[in-house]
Design goal:
- It is built from two helices and ten strands.
- The chain has 126 residues and is of the alpha+beta class.
- Strands 5-10-9-8-7-6 form a six-stranded mixed β-sheet. It has a four-stranded mixed β-sheet with strand order 1-4-3-2, covered by helices on one side.
- Strand 2 and strand 3 form a beta hairpin.
């Protein structure tokens, strides 16, 4: 038995659970699942899910906390922009976005922040 045999989920910290719940449910379109005193789960494809948990800790990592593989990055970015999502623009050596989208060695990618300051990444693998 190995951990690779199990579904994965990510846990996202939030200062305002209700605000985050609306963003992930209404703006991003995730379907809410179980809820308890420790937070709320949102369901996604293939049994994957994410958990939002309330925390007074406002520190966020400077990295992507949630990655989502998509098939048509241009369409997903356009749809999310129409819902008010603002994509990050980067201009670093080896990583430059144009219109919020970067071409990487693995494919194409785009990033945005949720209402809690967490970085969410979208990737269309080559």
């Amino acid at each position: 038995m190995s951990l690779k045999d199990f579904h994965l989920h990510t846990t996202i910290p939030c200062a305002d659970l209700e605000r985050a719940r609306r963003f992930y449910g209404e703006t991003l379109g995730f379907e809410q699942g179980l809820e308890g005193p420790g937070g709320v789960f949102f369901e996604a494809s293939g049994g994957s899910r994410l958990a939002l948990f309330p925390t007074p800790n406002t520190e966020r990592g400077g990295h992507t906390q949630l990655g989502v593989s998509v098939e048509d990055l241009d369409a997903v970015v356009a749809d999310l922009k129409s819902r008010g999502v603002v994509f990050e623009e980067y201009d670093f050596p080896g990583l430059k976005t144009e219109g919020g989208i970067a071409t990487t060695s693995a494919g194409r990618a785009a990033w945005f922040k949720d209402t809690e300051g967490n970085t969410i990444g979208l990737v269309e693998l080559a």
